[in-house]
Design goal:
6 helices, single chain, 11% strand, two-stranded antiparallel sheet
Amino acid sequence: MEMQKLYLLVPLAPLVGAMIAGLFCRVIPRWVAHTSTIAGVAIAFITSLFIFQDVQAGNTFNGTVYTWMTSGDYRFEVGFLIDTLTTTMMLVVTFVSLMVHIYTVGYMHEDPGYNRFFSYISLFTFSMLMLVMSNNFMQLFFGWEAVGLVSYLLIGFWYKPNSHLCQYESVFSESSW
């Protein structure tokens, strides 16, 4: 398999899992959501291992994978820089994300937003990989912003409009002083 296809597989596998869990969250059972996202991240991790071995053998890559817009002399591209630092970060991101995905199956087992949560964490993995693998500032910026957006979605996941803001309300009330 050509190495550029492997480079693309690393971020796209978690994205496909996120799309399955997110777009079909109301019609698929829970096991499909977590299986598709875990499989996507596992594929990304295993592919990262192969890429890491290739880089350790002395092969690197810095190039355009896809040009999505050209305007006059300006080209807006999706490109990857694959070197030792990048592959190390790819391994860290995919391994930690895989462990979080596996842990989350049990942790979230009764949550009503189960499928949506799996979509978010898989989308977070995609965003982190696009950030880590980018070879241009525009892609780096979009990766960084996507990480921020998905972090916001994950932080606000359990927000309920009329819930108590502080569960230790009596500790901070005037009568406890």
